[in-house]
Amino acid sequence: MDENNGQEEAETEYPPVKFTEEMQYYVYEAAKWARVLAIFGFLVSVIMILSSLASGQAFEVMSKSNPALSQVISGPQVLGFFYLLMAFMCLIPSVHLFLFAKNAKEGINFSTEEQLNTAFSKLKSYFKFCGILVIVIVALNILSAFLSAFGGMPK
Description:
mainly alpha; single chain; elongated
């Protein structure tokens, strides 16, 4: 019985939506701003990647002036890995935004439905990634609060 219900939902067709000129204008304007945000995200990612590579050199210079720092073995590696992870987390949504902007502009300029479908698919991927990232960050914050509240309790 559940299988038939699932098939009926999959076969349900939605009425076609008329894509008006006003809608096209709004999507085109959104694509322009998405491109600006994507380029900014690319720049931030590059800066983070360069920072991760420079952290080792900076740590080496600091350890010469402070010998106690030379005993920290994994300092620059951890910092470099953290910056690379953050750059990756910034790069992925920037790529999705850039592809949305590119395909949306071309889809509207050349009236190609396939490119508009690709554009909205990339926009969906952008929001999906950001949503998952927010859930992970909130979960880590809750876990951190829980561990700090109960981890410091006397035994």
